[in-house]
Amino acid sequence: MGFNIPPIKTPQGWLSIYHAVGPDKYYRLGAVLLDLDDPSIVRHRTPDGLMQPETDYEIEGFYRGVCFPCGAVVIDGTLFVYYGGGDKYCALATCSLEELVRHLLSCLRN
Predict the structure, then answer these.
(1) Which is nearest to 104 in space by CA: 37, 46, 41, 34?
(2) What is the pTM of this model?
């Protein structure tokens, strides 16, 4: 698991988007909520990837099968995650920050 973007502070914990490599050698994005007082404690983690390579620009490229987080920002409640696709393209994925945190809170604690 690798962290590439600074964690985002939420009332429920530090949200961090990470990448990990699966058995198929594809890089996927996942999310964790870390403890506000001790970020070394993982409170919640998505059991499966939030995003995986699916489109041509993510599957083909310098490295096949890559979704790799590069940066993130929250604007008006929307989380914008900038990510690399295929180690060749820069792309953008968005979601509601509140919905993502709610999803994480529904995931089992580690």
Answers:
(1) 46
(2) 0.89
